Amino acid sequence: MSQPELDPWIEGYLGYLGEVRRMAPRTVIDVRCTLKRVAEALGRIRPGTPLWQATHQDYLEWLEGERGRGFSGASIAKDVSHLRGLLDYAWRSGRADRNVLDGFSFKEGYQRRTPKYLSLEEAKRLVVACPKRNPAERRDRMIILVLYGCGLRTQELCQLNVDDLDRERQEVCVRHGKGDRPRQVPVMDGLWTELMAYVGERGWKSGAVFRTTAKRRRLAQKDVCQVVSAAAKRAGLEGEVTPKTLRHSFATHLMDRGVKLEVISVLMGHRGVGETGVYLHALPGRGEAAVAQLAANGEVKP
């Protein structure tokens, strides 16, 4: 069954998020998906009732249904946050007498799990499993190295352009991270040398760093996932290994080497250290030196 169209007033709220609150387009899309899904669920509980007129009990019934369907605590907590924003807007706009979710948060049974990451030995095996005998192999190897060596998100890697490689500072510039937050990520010497050779070999002076072999188009996220999955299979790594696994490995290995939580938060493009706290514990250190340590002592060599 297709999801219902959103009420025109909710469409106005979404426009407000993008145009007035200046939320990133992907965030607005995420809120839209939440509101569509909840509207459909509440339509079965109280048909014909708009979201801003649903009662606190209605939302509790919806919440129990989400738990019964196996949604994680993190997913439900995010949905509640999206709903609370809509209901607060409805209250301030005079469409509702109050925000029935004001002060409500979902915490029961919600424990943030340690992200899946590779051990240093597994990271070494993954890199070794990436040969560089031809252009396609060198591209796939570089994808693995940049994901692990810079901690980029999949979409950030796909959007990376040659102009985003700061040769003077030896940094990768992420211009549109999550929440449209830009950041600079220092790159270890060995990785930088191979990255410059990769770009130079193709003679690319502008445009996407990672392109398809046949039509030279920018790689899509699914293409990157396939590259990582194939490399993990060649390396004999157990369980699912995704681009996010390499990003988590980047942060975890920096944490293990004594990098301060605040520095990792900046390198990862997090909103604050609260997001970064899932990576073990904070130890003293510096960002650039810690990134370089990933290549020190022959631990992981590009």
Structural domain tally: 2
SSE order: HHHHHHHEEEHHHHHH
State the helical fraction.
Answer: 40-55%
Largest sheet features: 3 strands, antiparallel
Distance between the termini: 49 Å
Annotated CATH topology of the largest domain: hpI Integrase, Chain A
How much of the residues is beta strand, in percent?
under 5%
Mean pLDDT across residues = 84
Number of helices: 13
Tally of DSSP β-strands = 3
The CATH superfamily of the largest domain bears the name Intergrase catalytic core
Strand order of the largest sheet: 1-2-3
Spatial extent as radius of gyration: 22 Å
Describe the overall structure.
The model is unreliable at 280-287 (pLDDT under 50). It is elongated, with a radius of gyration of 22 Å. The protein is mostly helical. The longest helix has 21 residues, at 25-45. The protein has two domains: 8-92; 120-298, hpI Integrase, Chain A (Orthogonal Bundle). Strand 1 and strand 2 form a beta hairpin. It is built from 13 helices and three strands, in the order αααααααβββαααααα.
List the helices and strands and how they pair.
Elements: H1 8-19, H2 25-45, H3 56-68, H4 73-92, H5 120-128, H6 135-150, H7 154-159, E1 165-166, E2 171-174, E3 183-186, H8 189-202, H9 221-235, H10 243-256, H11 261-268, H12 273-276, H13 287-293
Antiparallel strand pairs: 1-2, 2-3
Helix pairs in contact: 2-3, 5-9, 6-8, 6-10
Features:
3-stranded antiparallel β-sheet; 302 residues
Short summary of the structure?
The chain has helices spanning 8-19, 25-45, 56-68, 73-92, 120-128, 135-150, 154-159, 189-202, 221-235, 243-256, 261-268, 273-276, 287-293, and strands at residues 165-166, 171-174, 183-186.
